[in-house]
User: Fold these one by one.
Assistant:
Number 1:
Amino acid sequence: MWYRPAMPMYETFSRRRDRAAKAQGPEVYVYDELPEPLVNQIVRICYETMGYLSFQVGNSVMNAEGVWDHVESVIIREYGLKELPGDHHVDAGVDERVIGFFEQTEVNDHRLDAIEIIFRLIAKSNLAGKEDAIKELNARFKLAGIGYQFDGRDLIRLDSTVAHGEIVVPALTLLGRKGFEKADEQYRSAHKHYRHGEYPQAITEAGKAFESTLKAIYALKGWTYPAGAAVSDLVKVGVKEGLFPDWLGNSLQTYVAMLKTGLLAVRNNSGAHGEAPDAKSAEDYLARFALHTSAANILLVAEAADKVV
C-alpha cells in the first residue's frame, strides 16, 4: 500500500499574518484583494517558469506536476479539506485543480498562501529563470498597487517592514489632517509613480510633499516665508520660529545637511528639471530612499509643530 510520510504543519502566510498584531493606519497599497489581471499574470509566470521538465528542489528532483501536487497537498491539509473546491472536470490534472482553485476562490488568503508555497519551491529550485520569475512577481504586485512582495523565502506585507510601518504609514496619518491636502496628494503621487517604475517623478513628488508639509505648517501657525522660497529657506523659517526644539542644538545642522546631501541631492541629480541627455535614469533604490527620507522628514517637522504653541 502506498504511504505518504506525515507532513509537518505548514507555516502559511495567512497564519503568520494573523498572528502578528498590526497597527491600523492609512495606506497607499491594497491588501485584501488580487485583481483578475494580476491573478492571470501570476498563473502565466508559474507555468512559464516551471515548464514540464524535471528540476532540482533542495535535495529532491521534481517537475511541474510534483510542485502542483505539493501545493494541493499543503492546501488540503492546512485548510482541513477533503479535496480542492472548484469547477473542474473529473479528469482534471493536478495543475488544473490547483489553478482552478487559485482562480475561483473568493478567499484572498487562499491565493496568497498558494503563491507563497509555489514561489518557495521555485526559489529553492535550480530553475534557470527563477530569479526573473520572482522579480516579475514583485514587479506585478507593485504595478497593481498590491502591498505584498516575495523576499525569496516568505511573502510579506509591505506594512510589516520597519520603514513602511514605522515611517510611511505614520506620515500618511499626519498628512491626512486638515490643511495638509496638497502634501498628502503629492506623497501618494510619489508612491504611484514608484509603483509604475517612474522613479525620477517619484523622487520629485516626494520632495514636493516635504516642501508642502512645511508650507502647510507655516500656514496653520501664521508664519510667513519669502515667495518662491526653496526648502533650505523654508527650514530657516522653521528655525527662526522655534519649530525645532532647543535641545536639538547642533544636531539641527546635521539634519539640514542631511536634507541637502540626502533627499535634495537625489532629487536634483536624478529627478528634477533639466536632466542631461546622457544622465542615468534614477534607480528604484534611490526612489525608495527619497520616499522614506521624505516621510521621515515629514514626521519630524509635523510632530515638532505639534509641540509648538
Number 2:
Amino acid sequence: MILDAAERRAQVLGFNGFSYADVAGELGVTAASIHYHFPAKTDLGVRLIERYTQRFLAALAQIERHPDGAWARLQDYAGIYERVLAEGRLCLCGILAAEYETLPERMRGPIGAFFGANEDWLTAQLSEGRQAGVLAFEGEPRGVAAALTGALEGAMLVARARGGAEAFVSTSALALRSLCQPLSP
C-alpha cells in the first residue's frame, strides 16, 4: 500500500513533489508508520525504483513472447508508455531522471540501471529485426535503442503538456517508423 501510494504520487508529482505526510494522509495512517517501513525517503525511493524496474522487466518478458516478431514487440513496448500516460502518470524512472541532480546518490544508480535494461532489451529486438530482414535503420542497434528510449520518454513529458495519450500515440508512432522502419514482406 505504501509503495503503491508513493509510486502514484512520484509518477505525477515527481519524487521531490511529495512527502511522507502526503502518503500517510492518503492511506489514513501516521507519517511515523511510513518511517517504520522506510526510515529515510531515500530508502523509499530506492525500493520504488527496484519494484518499478522488476515490473517493467516482467512486462518486457511478456512482450518477448509476442509471436509476430520484432516490429510488433517494439509497438507493444511503446504501448507500455501509452498505458501509463493514459492513467495520468509518467514513467517513474523518466520523471526521476528529470529530477536526477536533486536526488540522493543511492537513487541515481538504479535509475541508470533501469534505462540500461531497457536499452539492452531494445537492442536485442532491433538486432533480431534487422537480422530477420524485417527492420531497417541506420546506425548500430544500441544507438537506435538509446534514441528510441529517449524519444518515448521525451514524448511522454511533452504529451503531458500537449494533450496526453493522444499526442503521445502520434509521436511514438513517428519515432518508431523513423528510427526502425518495418520492411514490407
Number 3:
Amino acid sequence: MKIKRMYFNKLYKELREPEISILLGARQVGKTTLLEQLHAKVTKAGLKSKYFNLESSEGLMELSGDNAAVIKTLMGAGDVVFIDEFHYLKNASKIFKEIYDSKKKVKIYASGSSSLEIHKHLKESLAGRFRTTMIFPLTREEMRQSKMEVLDVFLKWGGMPGLLHRASDDDKMDLLSNIVSTYITKDVKAMIREENVRAFNQMLYLLAQNQGSLVVMANIANATGISQTTIADYLEIMSQTYVCHPVHSYSTNLANELKKSKKCYLFDVGIRNSLLKDFGEPAERGDRGVLHETFVYLSMLPQLKPNMEIRFWRTKKGDEVDFVLIKNRVPVPVEVKSSVKEASIPSGMRSFFRAYPKAPFGIVFSGIPEKTADHEGKPVYFMGWDRAENIEYLNDV
C-alpha cells in the first residue's frame, strides 16, 4: 500500500528551488520511498532524472572516483538527481557546492540517516545552499490511508511504514526487531568499539524501560558497567542518528528548579515495544501511561516550527508537568493522563501557573470527554490524546 506522506507536496515544491533538498531521519522511516515517489513524479512530468542508492554497491560504483569525476556524473545525469544515504559520498559538501555554484543548474534531493556523518559534510561551505526536512514515522493521520489508525493499534505497533506490508502479528514483530538489529549492526558498530556493543544494547533497553523518566547517568553507568562520559557519548550517538529525542528541562533560573536534567523518548512507540519485548494490549499494560505520554510527544514533535520547542518542568520538591510547549518563548504546560475520570486540574500544573503567571492556558490530554476547566482565570483544556496530532490551537499564543 502506498501512503502519501505529509512531506511530499512540500518537497515537490522545492523542485523549483536551487538549494539541495536534504531528507533526514532514522532508518526505515520512509525517506527512500519519498525519494522514489518524487523521482516517479519528476519523470512523469517529463524531466530527465537519475536515482543513486549509495547503500548498494552499484550506486557507490557510479559515484566513485575523484571529485571531478563525481561532479561530471551528477551534472550529466539529468535535470534532477536523487541520492539515497548521501553521507556515504566522499566530499559531498564540496561536490554539492560546486554543482550549486555552477551555471548549469541541477536540482539535488538527498537523504541521510546519520547526522554525525552529515554534519561533516554540511559545513560552512554549504551555508545557504541547502534546506532540510526531518522525516518521522507515519502519523495516525497518514495511517488513516490504511487500517492501522486506531489509537490502541498505533500504541502497540507504532508508525514504521514497513508495517503496512505485514499482515500477521509475528511478521510485524519480526520487522521491528530487524529494524533494531540493523541499527545496531550498521550505525552503532561503525561508531563505537566492538566490546561496548553489548553495553550499548543494555543502555537502549534501560532507556526504553524508563522512558519519560529523568535520565540519571550514574544509574545507567552502574547498570551497564561503562562510564558516565561514555553514556553521554552514546546518548549523543542516539540523538544524532535520530533514534532518541532528548527533552530538556524548562527553567528561568528559579532556585528550586532542576536545570540540567533531561528525559529521552525513542523515536517510535513500536520500536520501544520491540526493545521491551512487550506487545500486550495497551489498556492492559502497567506502562500504558508511558505509552500515552510517548504518543503525545511524538505527535507534537513533527509539528514544531522554528519558533517552538518542547521541554518538561520539574522542581526539587517534586512539582512537575510532563511537557512545556513553548511558542515565541510563551510556555504552555501540558499533562498527559491515562486514568483520570474527571476534569481535575493536576497539582503540578497549578504549581506551574504560580511559577509562570504569563502562561496563557494549560492542556491535559486524557481519555475523558473534552471539557474546559478554570484555574484562577486561566483555562485548562481537557482533550483526547489524539488531539495532540494537531496543535493549531497554539496559533493565538
Number 4:
Amino acid sequence: MFPIRDINPTRIFPLVTLTIIAVNVAVFFLLQPFGDDIESQEFFYEYAAVACELQTGDPLSLDEINRDVCTEGPEQPVFPSKNVELSAFVSMFLHGGILHLGFNMWSLWIFGNNVEEAFGRVGYIALYLVTGLVATAGFVVANLDATVPLVGASGAIAGVMGAYLVLFPLHRIMTLVFFYIVAVPAAFFLGIWFLLQFSVAGADSNVAWEAHVFGFVAGAALALPFRRVLLRRTAEAQRVPAPGPFALS
C-alpha cells in the first residue's frame, strides 16, 4: 500500500511541516556525501546516532566498527570530538538515500499538516522532536550493542502518524493498492502500516522497525489524553476566515 493523499483539508498554512521537509532535503543534498562510498559511511559514523555509543557514552573505535562489536574500554575513538548525545537529534535529519528521503517526506506531507493544525506550531514541533527521540531510544534499548548508524526521520514521522490515528481515525486515505487507488479509513491504513513493521523483526534488513514502533506508540500516547482539546482547536481553526482555503493533504 502506498498513500497518495488524505481527504482531510486544513485551513492553516503548514509552515512547520514544510520547514521540516525543506531542512531534510537541504541536509541531504547540501551536506551529506552522495553514494555508498567510504566518505558517506564515515559521514554517518561521525554524525549519526549509534546504539553502542549512546549506551556507553563514547564514540566507536576502529576495532568496534570493523568487528561490529560494542565494547567498553580505553580504545582510541575514530571521531573523538563526536557529540554522542547530539547525534540522537542529528540522525533525524539524515537519510540513507533518495528513496528513503522521498518516502519519508511524502508521508510527512500527507499526515503532518492536519497534526500541525491540531497541535499548533509549537506543540507540533515538540511532538515531532519528542517522538523522534523516543524512537531512537526505543531502537537503542532493543539493540544495545548495535554499531550501525541509525539515520532517518522515520521515527519522528511515525510519531506524527500515531497522533493522526488518534485524532482522525475515520478520515479517508487515498491509497494505491496494486494498480488501483482506493479510499480507506486512516485507522485501517495506519493499523496495517503498524503491523507491517513487525514483519521485518528478526530479518536481515536495514529497517529500524523498533524506532517506527516506539515513535508511533509515543505519538498516539501523547495525542490521546488531549484528543478532545486538539480536535476543538482544529474545529476553531477551520472556522476562522483565511485568505483562501488550503486543501493540503
